[in-house]
Amino acid sequence: MEQAEKIDILRHLVEINSVNGNELSISKYISEKLAEHGIGSEIDEFGDNRANLVAEIGDGTDKRVLAFEGHQDTVALGDETKWTHEPLKFTLVGDQAYGRGTADMKSGLAAQIIALIELTEHHIPITGKLRFIATAGEEYGTPGANRLNEQGIAKDISAMVVGEPTGGEVIFAHSGSLNYQIKSYGKAVHSSTPEQGINAINGIVKYINREASLFDDIKQDEYLGPVKHSVTLIKGGDQVNIIPEYAEIYGNIRPTLKFPNNQVIDRIQQVIAEINETTDYQLEFSLIHNFYPVETNPNNEFIKLVVETAELDYVDRKSKLSIINGATDASVFIQSNSDMPVVILGPDAWDKAHQVDEFTTLTSFFETINTYEEIAKKYLHKQ
Protein backbone atom coordinates (compact mmCIF):
# COMPACT_ATOMS: atom_id res chain seq x y z
CA MET A 1 0.00 0.00 0.00
CA GLU A 2 1.32 3.44 -0.90
CA GLN A 3 2.00 5.89 1.92
CA ALA A 4 -0.62 8.27 0.54
CA GLU A 5 -3.34 5.63 1.00
CA LYS A 6 -2.15 4.91 4.54
CA ILE A 7 -2.39 8.60 5.40
CA ASP A 8 -5.83 8.72 3.78
CA ILE A 9 -7.09 5.93 6.05
CA LEU A 10 -5.89 7.85 9.09
CA ARG A 11 -7.46 11.03 7.71
CA HIS A 12 -10.86 9.39 7.31
CA LEU A 13 -10.80 7.99 10.85
CA VAL A 14 -9.87 11.35 12.39
CA GLU A 15 -12.51 13.28 10.47
CA ILE A 16 -15.35 11.01 11.64
CA ASN A 17 -16.58 12.53 14.89
CA SER A 18 -16.53 9.74 17.49
CA VAL A 19 -16.42 11.82 20.66
CA ASN A 20 -17.75 9.50 23.36
CA GLY A 21 -19.87 7.65 20.80
CA ASN A 22 -20.80 7.44 17.10
CA GLU A 23 -18.54 4.43 16.62
CA LEU A 24 -20.94 2.89 14.10
CA SER A 25 -19.78 5.37 11.47
CA ILE A 26 -16.17 4.38 12.15
CA SER A 27 -17.02 0.67 12.01
CA LYS A 28 -18.79 1.05 8.68
CA TYR A 29 -15.81 2.86 7.19
CA ILE A 30 -13.38 0.20 8.48
CA SER A 31 -15.61 -2.60 7.18
CA GLU A 32 -15.77 -1.02 3.73
CA LYS A 33 -12.01 -0.46 3.63
CA LEU A 34 -11.27 -4.05 4.66
CA ALA A 35 -13.79 -5.35 2.11
CA GLU A 36 -11.98 -3.44 -0.66
CA HIS A 37 -9.01 -5.68 0.10
CA GLY A 38 -10.91 -8.93 0.43
CA ILE A 39 -11.15 -9.04 4.22
CA GLY A 40 -14.49 -9.78 5.82
CA SER A 41 -15.63 -8.28 9.11
CA GLU A 42 -18.55 -8.24 11.51
CA ILE A 43 -20.12 -5.09 12.92
CA ASP A 44 -21.70 -5.52 16.33
CA GLU A 45 -24.27 -2.72 16.72
CA PHE A 46 -25.79 -2.02 20.12
CA GLY A 47 -27.88 1.12 19.81
CA ASP A 48 -27.37 4.90 19.79
CA ASN A 49 -25.02 4.65 16.80
CA ARG A 50 -22.59 2.54 18.82
CA ALA A 51 -20.75 -0.48 17.46
CA ASN A 52 -17.79 -2.81 17.74
CA LEU A 53 -16.06 -4.37 14.76
CA VAL A 54 -14.21 -7.68 14.54
CA ALA A 55 -12.20 -8.99 11.58
CA GLU A 56 -9.98 -12.04 11.25
CA ILE A 57 -7.40 -13.42 8.86
CA GLY A 58 -5.39 -16.64 8.91
CA ASP A 59 -6.01 -20.31 8.16
CA GLY A 60 -6.32 -21.43 11.78
CA THR A 61 -4.10 -24.49 11.32
CA ASP A 62 -2.17 -23.37 14.39
CA LYS A 63 -4.08 -22.78 17.60
CA ARG A 64 -2.42 -19.44 18.25
CA VAL A 65 -4.66 -16.39 18.11
CA LEU A 66 -3.02 -12.97 18.08
CA ALA A 67 -5.31 -10.01 18.73
CA PHE A 68 -4.74 -6.46 17.55
CA GLU A 69 -7.06 -4.34 19.70
CA GLY A 70 -8.02 -0.68 19.67
CA HIS A 71 -10.88 1.68 20.40
CA GLN A 72 -12.80 3.85 17.97
CA ASP A 73 -14.00 6.63 20.28
CA THR A 74 -12.23 9.76 21.45
CA VAL A 75 -12.51 12.09 24.40
CA ALA A 76 -14.28 15.45 24.17
CA LEU A 77 -12.76 18.29 22.17
CA GLY A 78 -12.41 20.64 25.11
CA ASP A 79 -12.25 24.38 24.49
CA GLU A 80 -12.16 24.54 20.70
CA THR A 81 -10.99 28.17 20.77
CA LYS A 82 -7.67 26.97 22.18
CA TRP A 83 -6.99 24.67 19.24
CA THR A 84 -4.57 25.99 16.62
CA HIS A 85 -5.95 23.44 14.16
CA GLU A 86 -9.57 22.34 13.76
CA PRO A 87 -10.00 19.33 16.08
CA LEU A 88 -12.20 17.35 13.69
CA LYS A 89 -10.11 18.07 10.62
CA PHE A 90 -6.98 16.11 9.78
CA THR A 91 -4.24 18.73 9.42
CA LEU A 92 -0.76 17.76 8.28
CA VAL A 93 2.11 20.13 9.14
CA GLY A 94 5.41 18.59 8.14
CA ASP A 95 5.63 15.24 9.91
CA GLN A 96 2.93 16.08 12.46
CA ALA A 97 -0.72 15.13 11.93
CA TYR A 98 -3.17 17.11 14.09
CA GLY A 99 -6.73 16.33 15.12
CA ARG A 100 -8.70 14.78 17.96
CA GLY A 101 -7.81 11.13 18.20
CA THR A 102 -4.65 11.28 16.11
CA ALA A 103 -2.67 9.98 19.08
CA ASP A 104 -5.41 8.31 21.14
CA MET A 105 -5.84 6.19 19.27
CA LYS A 106 -6.88 6.50 15.64
CA SER A 107 -3.27 6.29 14.46
CA GLY A 108 -2.89 2.98 16.29
CA LEU A 109 -6.24 1.82 14.92
CA ALA A 110 -5.27 2.80 11.38
CA ALA A 111 -1.92 1.03 11.76
CA GLN A 112 -3.69 -2.18 12.77
CA ILE A 113 -6.11 -1.93 9.83
CA ILE A 114 -3.26 -1.36 7.39
CA ALA A 115 -1.26 -4.25 8.88
CA LEU A 116 -4.18 -6.61 8.23
CA ILE A 117 -4.51 -5.36 4.67
CA GLU A 118 -0.81 -5.58 3.83
CA LEU A 119 -0.40 -9.03 5.36
CA THR A 120 -3.31 -10.17 3.19
CA GLU A 121 -2.13 -8.48 0.00
CA HIS A 122 1.43 -9.79 0.42
CA HIS A 123 0.01 -13.30 0.86
CA ILE A 124 1.84 -13.86 4.14
CA PRO A 125 0.80 -17.31 5.41
CA ILE A 126 -0.88 -16.82 8.79
CA THR A 127 -0.98 -20.29 10.29
CA GLY A 128 -2.99 -19.24 13.31
CA LYS A 129 -5.47 -16.39 13.44
CA LEU A 130 -4.93 -12.65 13.53
CA ARG A 131 -8.00 -11.06 15.08
CA PHE A 132 -8.63 -7.32 14.80
CA ILE A 133 -10.92 -5.92 17.49
CA ALA A 134 -12.19 -2.32 17.33
CA THR A 135 -14.28 -1.35 20.35
CA ALA A 136 -16.75 1.32 21.35
CA GLY A 137 -16.54 3.50 24.43
CA GLU A 138 -13.08 2.80 25.84
CA GLU A 139 -12.82 6.38 27.01
CA TYR A 140 -15.95 6.13 29.15
CA GLY A 141 -17.15 2.92 30.71
CA THR A 142 -15.86 0.39 28.12
CA PRO A 143 -19.34 -0.74 27.00
CA GLY A 144 -17.93 -2.18 23.79
CA ALA A 145 -15.19 -4.23 25.43
CA ASN A 146 -17.62 -5.40 28.11
CA ARG A 147 -20.06 -6.56 25.46
CA LEU A 148 -17.45 -8.44 23.44
CA ASN A 149 -15.96 -9.98 26.56
CA GLU A 150 -19.37 -11.31 27.58
CA GLN A 151 -19.63 -12.85 24.11
CA GLY A 152 -16.37 -14.72 24.79
CA ILE A 153 -14.16 -13.03 22.22
CA ALA A 154 -11.04 -13.13 24.42
CA LYS A 155 -11.21 -16.72 25.66
CA ASP A 156 -9.09 -18.22 22.86
CA ILE A 157 -6.68 -15.31 22.41
CA SER A 158 -3.03 -16.35 22.89
CA ALA A 159 -1.59 -12.82 22.98
CA MET A 160 -2.88 -9.27 22.56
CA VAL A 161 -1.40 -6.02 21.26
CA VAL A 162 -3.31 -2.90 22.31
CA GLY A 163 -2.61 0.03 20.00
CA GLU A 164 -2.66 2.89 22.51
CA PRO A 165 0.05 5.57 22.10
CA THR A 166 3.35 4.54 23.71
CA GLY A 167 5.99 6.21 21.57
CA GLY A 168 7.46 2.87 20.59
CA GLU A 169 7.90 1.76 24.18
CA VAL A 170 6.64 -1.74 24.92
CA ILE A 171 4.21 -1.45 27.81
CA PHE A 172 3.90 -4.73 29.70
CA ALA A 173 1.85 -3.50 32.65
CA HIS A 174 -0.64 -0.84 33.61
CA SER A 175 -2.54 -0.08 36.77
CA GLY A 176 -6.24 -0.59 37.19
CA SER A 177 -8.66 2.28 37.61
CA LEU A 178 -11.52 2.31 40.06
CA ASN A 179 -14.00 5.21 40.15
CA TYR A 180 -16.41 5.47 43.05
CA GLN A 181 -18.95 7.74 44.72
CA ILE A 182 -19.70 8.22 48.40
CA LYS A 183 -22.96 9.85 49.47
CA SER A 184 -23.36 11.36 52.93
CA TYR A 185 -26.77 11.84 54.52
CA GLY A 186 -27.42 14.21 57.41
CA LYS A 187 -30.17 16.40 58.84
CA ALA A 188 -30.83 19.97 57.69
CA VAL A 189 -31.38 22.71 60.28
CA HIS A 190 -30.76 26.43 60.55
CA SER A 191 -27.06 27.19 60.72
CA SER A 192 -27.62 29.07 64.00
CA THR A 193 -28.43 25.74 65.70
CA PRO A 194 -25.99 23.26 64.15
CA GLU A 195 -26.16 21.03 67.23
CA GLN A 196 -29.72 20.11 66.27
CA GLY A 197 -28.73 18.83 62.84
CA ILE A 198 -26.27 16.44 61.26
CA ASN A 199 -23.82 18.08 58.87
CA ALA A 200 -23.47 15.78 55.85
CA ILE A 201 -20.29 17.57 54.78
CA ASN A 202 -18.65 16.63 58.06
CA GLY A 203 -19.44 13.01 57.28
CA ILE A 204 -17.56 13.39 54.01
CA VAL A 205 -14.66 15.05 55.83
CA LYS A 206 -14.56 12.09 58.20
CA TYR A 207 -14.09 9.75 55.25
CA ILE A 208 -11.55 11.98 53.47
CA ASN A 209 -9.38 12.10 56.59
CA ARG A 210 -9.34 8.30 56.66
CA GLU A 211 -8.84 8.02 52.91
CA ALA A 212 -5.64 10.07 53.02
CA SER A 213 -3.73 7.21 54.68
CA LEU A 214 -5.98 4.31 53.72
CA PHE A 215 -3.38 2.46 51.66
CA ASP A 216 -0.17 3.53 53.38
CA ASP A 217 0.47 0.03 54.71
CA ILE A 218 0.26 -1.66 51.30
CA LYS A 219 3.53 -2.88 49.83
CA GLN A 220 4.39 -1.46 46.45
CA ASP A 221 3.86 -3.60 43.38
CA GLU A 222 7.17 -4.62 41.83
CA TYR A 223 6.35 -2.86 38.57
CA LEU A 224 3.32 -0.61 39.13
CA GLY A 225 4.44 0.90 42.43
CA PRO A 226 2.02 2.10 45.13
CA VAL A 227 -1.76 2.16 45.07
CA LYS A 228 -2.49 5.74 43.95
CA HIS A 229 -5.69 7.32 45.19
CA SER A 230 -7.38 10.71 45.08
CA VAL A 231 -10.68 12.35 45.97
CA THR A 232 -11.41 14.31 42.82
CA LEU A 233 -14.92 15.82 43.10
CA ILE A 234 -16.92 17.11 46.04
CA LYS A 235 -20.43 18.56 46.26
CA GLY A 236 -22.56 19.53 49.23
CA GLY A 237 -25.00 21.99 50.69
CA ASP A 238 -27.79 24.13 49.27
CA GLN A 239 -27.47 27.46 51.05
CA VAL A 240 -24.93 29.14 53.28
CA ASN A 241 -27.23 29.37 56.32
CA ILE A 242 -28.50 25.77 56.21
CA ILE A 243 -26.68 22.81 57.72
CA PRO A 244 -26.37 20.48 54.71
CA GLU A 245 -28.37 17.28 54.75
CA TYR A 246 -26.56 15.82 51.75
CA ALA A 247 -23.04 15.78 50.34
CA GLU A 248 -21.13 13.56 47.96
CA ILE A 249 -17.64 12.92 46.70
CA TYR A 250 -16.11 11.06 43.81
CA GLY A 251 -12.74 9.38 43.94
CA ASN A 252 -10.31 7.47 41.75
CA ILE A 253 -7.98 4.68 42.83
CA ARG A 254 -5.31 2.89 40.80
CA PRO A 255 -5.20 -0.75 41.97
CA THR A 256 -2.19 -3.00 41.36
CA LEU A 257 -1.73 -6.76 41.28
CA LYS A 258 -0.24 -6.49 44.77
CA PHE A 259 -3.49 -4.91 46.01
CA PRO A 260 -6.20 -5.55 43.40
CA ASN A 261 -9.67 -4.11 42.94
CA ASN A 262 -11.60 -6.41 45.26
CA GLN A 263 -9.28 -5.63 48.17
CA VAL A 264 -9.51 -1.90 47.47
CA ILE A 265 -13.31 -2.08 47.54
CA ASP A 266 -13.31 -4.15 50.74
CA ARG A 267 -11.12 -1.60 52.50
CA ILE A 268 -13.31 1.35 51.49
CA GLN A 269 -16.42 -0.46 52.62
CA GLN A 270 -14.81 -1.26 55.97
CA VAL A 271 -14.16 2.44 56.56
CA ILE A 272 -17.72 3.33 55.56
CA ALA A 273 -19.12 0.70 57.94
CA GLU A 274 -16.97 1.97 60.83
CA ILE A 275 -18.08 5.57 60.30
CA ASN A 276 -21.73 4.56 60.06
CA GLU A 277 -21.52 2.44 63.22
CA THR A 278 -19.60 4.89 65.40
CA THR A 279 -21.02 8.30 64.36
CA ASP A 280 -24.32 9.91 63.45
CA TYR A 281 -23.19 10.21 59.83
CA GLN A 282 -24.58 7.79 57.27
CA LEU A 283 -22.37 7.17 54.26
CA GLU A 284 -23.16 5.10 51.17
CA PHE A 285 -20.58 3.68 48.75
CA SER A 286 -21.24 3.16 45.01
CA LEU A 287 -18.87 1.66 42.45
CA ILE A 288 -18.93 3.50 39.11
CA HIS A 289 -16.15 2.00 36.98
CA ASN A 290 -13.95 -0.94 37.83
CA PHE A 291 -10.96 -1.57 35.56
CA TYR A 292 -8.45 -4.24 36.49
CA PRO A 293 -4.65 -3.92 36.47
CA VAL A 294 -2.86 -5.65 33.61
CA GLU A 295 0.59 -7.10 34.06
CA THR A 296 2.58 -9.60 32.00
CA ASN A 297 5.91 -10.99 33.16
CA PRO A 298 8.55 -9.00 31.24
CA ASN A 299 10.41 -12.28 30.64
CA ASN A 300 7.42 -13.72 28.78
CA GLU A 301 8.41 -14.97 25.32
CA PHE A 302 5.80 -12.81 23.59
CA ILE A 303 7.08 -9.71 25.38
CA LYS A 304 10.61 -10.54 24.23
CA LEU A 305 9.40 -11.01 20.66
CA VAL A 306 7.67 -7.61 20.66
CA VAL A 307 10.68 -5.82 22.15
CA GLU A 308 13.06 -7.35 19.60
CA THR A 309 10.71 -6.42 16.76
CA ALA A 310 10.09 -2.87 17.95
CA GLU A 311 13.80 -2.21 18.31
CA LEU A 312 14.24 -2.96 14.62
CA ASP A 313 11.39 -0.74 13.44
CA TYR A 314 11.54 2.32 15.69
CA VAL A 315 14.77 3.54 14.17
CA ASP A 316 15.33 6.77 16.10
CA ARG A 317 15.20 5.27 19.57
CA LYS A 318 15.78 2.03 21.41
CA SER A 319 12.46 0.52 22.41
CA LYS A 320 12.28 -0.37 26.06
CA LEU A 321 9.99 -2.07 28.49
CA SER A 322 7.87 0.29 30.51
CA ILE A 323 4.57 0.70 32.37
CA ILE A 324 1.78 3.27 32.36
CA ASN A 325 -0.73 4.32 34.98
CA GLY A 326 -3.70 4.63 32.63
CA ALA A 327 -6.14 1.82 31.89
CA THR A 328 -7.04 0.16 28.58
CA ASP A 329 -9.61 -2.26 27.17
CA ALA A 330 -7.24 -5.05 28.21
CA SER A 331 -8.53 -4.49 31.76
CA VAL A 332 -11.78 -6.01 30.56
CA PHE A 333 -10.47 -8.81 28.38
CA ILE A 334 -8.12 -10.29 30.99
CA GLN A 335 -11.13 -11.01 33.20
CA SER A 336 -11.98 -13.93 30.92
CA ASN A 337 -8.40 -14.82 29.96
CA SER A 338 -6.02 -14.01 32.80
CA ASP A 339 -3.13 -15.99 31.24
CA MET A 340 -3.14 -13.91 28.05
CA PRO A 341 0.09 -11.88 27.63
CA VAL A 342 -0.71 -8.27 26.79
CA VAL A 343 1.46 -5.49 25.41
CA ILE A 344 0.45 -1.91 24.73
CA LEU A 345 2.33 -0.49 21.76
CA GLY A 346 1.43 2.35 19.43
CA PRO A 347 2.54 5.54 17.67
CA ASP A 348 3.89 8.46 19.67
CA ALA A 349 3.62 9.00 23.37
CA TRP A 350 0.86 8.67 25.97
CA ASP A 351 1.26 12.36 26.88
CA LYS A 352 0.04 13.42 23.42
CA ALA A 353 -3.44 12.10 24.24
CA HIS A 354 -6.44 14.15 25.41
CA GLN A 355 -4.75 17.50 24.89
CA VAL A 356 -5.46 20.58 22.80
CA ASP A 357 -3.75 20.27 19.40
CA GLU A 358 -3.39 16.52 19.83
CA PHE A 359 -1.07 15.08 17.20
CA THR A 360 0.83 12.06 16.01
CA THR A 361 3.85 11.90 13.73
CA LEU A 362 3.79 10.14 10.40
CA THR A 363 7.23 8.72 11.15
CA SER A 364 5.96 6.92 14.23
CA PHE A 365 2.76 5.93 12.42
CA PHE A 366 4.66 4.21 9.60
CA GLU A 367 7.09 2.59 12.05
CA THR A 368 4.16 1.17 14.01
CA ILE A 369 2.59 -0.34 10.89
CA ASN A 370 5.85 -2.16 10.17
CA THR A 371 6.14 -3.33 13.76
CA TYR A 372 2.60 -4.73 13.83
CA GLU A 373 3.19 -6.63 10.60
CA GLU A 374 6.46 -8.10 11.83
CA ILE A 375 4.94 -9.13 15.16
CA ALA A 376 2.20 -11.01 13.30
CA LYS A 377 4.69 -12.66 10.96
CA LYS A 378 6.95 -13.84 13.76
CA TYR A 379 4.17 -14.98 16.05
CA LEU A 380 1.82 -16.57 13.53
CA HIS A 381 3.86 -17.42 10.44
CA LYS A 382 5.78 -20.69 10.46
CA GLN A 383 8.61 -20.88 7.96
TrEMBL record:
<dbReference type="InterPro" id="IPR050072">
    <property type="entry name" value="Peptidase_M20A"/>
</dbReference>
<dbReference type="InterPro" id="IPR001261">
    <property type="entry name" value="ArgE/DapE_CS"/>
</dbReference>
<feature type="domain" description="Peptidase M20 dimerisation">
    <location>
        <begin position="173"/>
        <end position="277"/>
    </location>
</feature>
<keyword id="KW-0378">Hydrolase</keyword>
<keyword id="KW-0220">Diaminopimelate biosynthesis</keyword>
<comment type="similarity">
    <text>Belongs to the peptidase M20A family.</text>
</comment>
<dbReference type="GO" id="GO:0009089">
    <property type="term" value="P:lysine biosynthetic process via diaminopimelate"/>
</dbReference>
<protein>
    <recommendedName>
        <fullName>Probable succinyl-diaminopimelate desuccinylase</fullName>
        <ecNumber>3.5.1.18</ecNumber>
    </recommendedName>
</protein>
<dbReference type="GO" id="GO:0009014">
    <property type="term" value="F:succinyl-diaminopimelate desuccinylase activity"/>
</dbReference>
<keyword id="KW-0457">Lysine biosynthesis</keyword>
<dbReference type="Pfam" id="PF07687">
    <property type="entry name" value="M20_dimer"/>
</dbReference>
<keyword id="KW-0170">Cobalt</keyword>
<comment type="pathway">
    <text>Amino-acid biosynthesis; L-lysine biosynthesis via DAP pathway; LL-2,6-diaminopimelate from (S)-tetrahydrodipicolinate (succinylase route): step 3/3.</text>
</comment>
<dbReference type="GO" id="GO:0046872">
    <property type="term" value="F:metal ion binding"/>
</dbReference>
<keyword id="KW-0479">Metal-binding</keyword>
<dbReference type="InterPro" id="IPR010182">
    <property type="entry name" value="ArgE/DapE"/>
</dbReference>
<dbReference type="InterPro" id="IPR002933">
    <property type="entry name" value="Peptidase_M20"/>
</dbReference>
<dbReference type="InterPro" id="IPR011650">
    <property type="entry name" value="Peptidase_M20_dimer"/>
</dbReference>
<keyword id="KW-0862">Zinc</keyword>
<dbReference type="InterPro" id="IPR036264">
    <property type="entry name" value="Bact_exopeptidase_dim_dom"/>
</dbReference>
<dbReference type="Pfam" id="PF01546">
    <property type="entry name" value="Peptidase_M20"/>
</dbReference>
<keyword id="KW-0028">Amino-acid biosynthesis</keyword>
<dbReference type="GO" id="GO:0019877">
    <property type="term" value="P:diaminopimelate biosynthetic process"/>
</dbReference>
